[in-house]
Amino acid sequence: MMSKKSLLAVILAGLLPLTCYFLLKYFTAEAVVMPKRYFYDTVQNNTSYGKTTSDTVWHKVRDFTLTNQFGRQVSLSDLEGKIIVADFFFTSCPIVCPTLTRNMKRLQDAFSKTDTIVRFLSFSVDPQRDSAERLKKYADKYGINHDTWWMLTGDKDEIYDIAKKEFKANVADTKVDTNFIHTEYFFILDKDRVVRGWYNGMDSIHLNKLASDVVLLMLEKDKKKKRRFFGS
Predict the structure, then answer these.
(1) Which end of the chain has less Cβ packing within 10 Å, N or C?
(2) Rounded to 5 degrees, what angle do the CA atoms 87, 85, 89 make?
(3) 117: which residues sit within 8 A by CB, 6+ positions away?
(4) CB atoms within 10 A of CB 44
(5) Cβ partners under 8 Å of residue 53, min gap 6
């Protein structure tokens, strides 16, 4: 029987033809169902010519500045216009985090041809111990591409605020301990920094869906332009 790792490798190996499929579908189909937006800040009611319309203001992850594995200060705003895949981990985690890191590495490899669009972020939830030097050593152990994947450390309160209030990690994973954000989930932000989905990073089916959704978000048009997409 094929192992889970082998199955995941086969699924991700099929990502390139999947990309081609969605490109073809985009140019030939009337509509594509896009990944949903999940969290909103407000709903504005606008009245014009006697008609009232509602406009949802979707929650955007705020800008932040943390330290990456090279000891450099980096900000979310440095990744403007990028699609982001993120997780929350710590380097001394014995079982779950190494598997998550290997699976995210497979995703990084799968999107290596589009590395100008997709970026990866791993937030340490144990920043007191996870120094930049320790993160660099961990990253090198798994052979990640440092140019497209930041492992981040910094003030613990700031990281936990990002996890809970911005990515809504404790909403996505209701079993998570809010005092120690250790979740198996990966999160996607679109080019506007809006959360568009979360996926179990240990599950090959979820990872396949994540990869498909990243491809769709790569094709998504600017909201101000004429749209062909529904469900978003």
Answers:
(1) N
(2) 10
(3) 82, 83, 111, 218
(4) 10
(5) 45, 46, 47
Strands 195-200 vs 185-189: parallel, antiparallel or unpaired: antiparallel
17, containing H or E segment: helix 15-28
Tokens of 98: 């190494």
**Within 10 A of 184 (CB to CB), how many other CB atoms are there?**
22
DSSP state of 29: S
The residues with which 200 forms a beta bridge, in sequence order, are 185
Distance CA 152, CA 123 (A): 5
Tokens encoding 200? 């179990």
Instruction: Give the integer Cα–Cα distance in Å for 128 and 167.
Output: 21
Tokens of 61: 């992850």
Exposure class string for 52-71: b at 16+ Cβ within 10 A, else e:
eeeeeebbbbeebebbbbee
End-to-end CA distance of the chain: 38
Please name the amino acid found at residue 39. Answer: F
User: pLDDT tens digits for 66-121?
Assistant: 999 999 999 999 999 999 999 999 999 999 999 999 999 999 999 988 778 999 99
What is the assigned CATH class of domain 4-223? alpha beta
Q: Which two tokens stand for residue 206?
A: 């979820």
